[in-house]
Amino acid sequence: MAQGKRISVDIGDDAIRAIKDMGAAAKQARLAAGEGQAAAAVRLGVHVQTVGRIEAGEPGVAIGHVIGMLALYGVTTELRRAGPAA
């Protein structure tokens, strides 16, 4: 079950894990680039708290912000279907 701010539906554990993994990847890439959260926020055009929420893997962050931050640091994503739809 999703825990976080501003999410109106329950999403599965696999989705939560993917969100957390993307946040961790964004943080790792930002640190590897030698940038702080404030610099990342300016580059992404969001508040520094949004960067923190992305990196924490909060499920209520806009997907465009998450993907945008990954793109800033050259991290790509790949979508795969885990199995039959429920």
The total beta strand count reads: 0
Shape: globular
Q: Which sequence of SSEs, written as H and E, runs from N to C?
A: HHHH
- Determine the number of helices (DSSP H or I, runs of at least 4 residues): 4
Tell me the fraction of residues in β-strands, as a range: under 5%
Major pleated sheet: none
Fraction of residues in helix: 40-55%
Structural class by helix and strand composition = mainly alpha
Mean pLDDT: 89
List the helices and strands and how they pair.
Blueprint: H1 13-32, H2 37-44, H3 48-56, H4 63-72
Helix pairs in contact: 1-3, 1-4, 2-3
Describe the protein's architecture and organization.
The protein has helices at about 15-30, 35-45, 50-55, 65-70. It is mainly α. The model has no long low-confidence stretch (mean pLDDT about 90).
A few lines on this structure:
This protein has helices at residues 13-32, 37-44, 48-56, 63-72. By secondary structure, the protein is an all-alpha fold.
